[in-house]
Write a structure and sequence with these properties.
The protein is of the alpha/beta class. The chain has nine helices and eight strands. Strands 1-2-3-4-5-6-7-8 form an eight-stranded parallel beta barrel, surrounded by nine helices.
Length: 301
Amino acid sequence: MKRLLDIRPHEMYQVQKKDLLNAIKASEGRTMVAEVIAPAPALLWDVSNPELASAFGADLLILNMYDTEHPSIFAYPYEGSTLLKDLSQSVGRMVGINLEPVSDAALMDEKTDISSGRVASVASAEKAYQQGAQYVLLTGNPKTGVTNEEIIKSIKKIAEALGDKLIIMAGKMHSAGIASETSRQMLNTDDIDAFIEAGSDIILIPAPGTVPGFSESYVAELVDHVHLKGKLAMSAIGTSQEGADKETIKAIALAAKRAGVDLHHIGDAGYPGIAVPENIMHYSIAIRGIRHTYRRMAMRK
C-alpha cells in the first residue's frame, strides 16, 4: 500500500480500512486532519468549508455536527443518499464524521442536547457508512456530557456492527463539560487500554499545550502506550487555538510531531465552523514541509 502522502485524490475513496491505516502509519506523522462544522455557514459563502479545508492541505476531513438523519453540508450542493461519498470523490479526500456518546452525567455548565442523528449509536454509524463515511470519531462537543465510560460503550457496539468496514477513532479533545474529566483526568493509559479493548483503531489525544496538563512529555507517554498496543494516535486541537497566530500553530504542530503522533487534527473553531484556513497550511508545512503540503493542495486527479 502507498503512503497516504502518495495517494492521489481519485484514489482516496477506494482505499479500504486496513490499507488506510497502513498508509497513515507509513506516512510517519505527516497526515493532516481538518475538522469542519457541517451546518455552519461557509466562510466563502458559496464554497463549502470542507472544500476550503481540502484546498489548504488537509488529507482527511471530519464533519462535526453532521446529522445522519438529515444529511447536509452548508453550501455543498448535493441531494442524494450518498452525500459523504460524493464529497470524498469531489474533493479527493478521506471523509468521516463525529458521533457523540452522550451521557446523563452532571455538567459544569448547562447541557447542550443533540439530535439522534449525531448520537453515537449503531444506527447513526450505519447511516454514516451508507452515506459514504470511511471513519467515525467518537468524541464530544462542549457541554454535551460525553464521558469516557460512554465512549467505551459506543466503541463496543459500533465495532461489533461495523468494525470490519469503518475505522473507529475515539478519545477526547476537551472535557465536554464533565468536571471529573478535566486536565489529566481526561485521558490516561487505563482509558486508552479500555478504548483499544473495545475496538478503537485510532486514539484521539489532546495536542500538547491545548488542554491544561497535557504537556509534550505527557502526550508522548500516551502516544508511546498507544503504539505499544499496535494502534495509531491522533493529536487534536479542539480548544479554539486553531484560530491562534501561526507561530502558536507551528509550536503545537512540532510538539505533537515530537510526541510521536501519527495524525494531526486541527479543529473547527478558528472562524465559526472551520480553522483559519491559513493555519491548516501552516500546520501542514510544519509537519511535512512545503513539498507535501503544496502537492496535496495542488493535486486534482
